[in-house]
Design brief:
By secondary structure, this protein is of the alpha+beta class. It has 2 helices and 2 strands; from the N terminus they run ααββ. It has one domain. Strands 1-2 form a two-stranded antiparallel ribbon. Strand 1 and strand 2 form a beta hairpin.
Amino acid sequence: MSKDKFNLEEAIKRLEQIVSELETGGKTLEDAIELFEEGMKLSNMCSEHLSALEKRVQILMKKDNGEYELKDFEE
């Protein structure tokens, strides 16, 4: 999955598949390590993507005078 065509939902589904495959067992050590590495890469990509999305989120806040303003989302 390339970064320019990153799809969060697809990445999460793939992560779920990887977890299921690793939990089921029956993989060679080499295959398990490859799956683990793929999962870690996807996890990092998801984390980066979610951080970028969080920066784009804004909150509609009501001011004391009754008007509304947009503020950036803060943790």
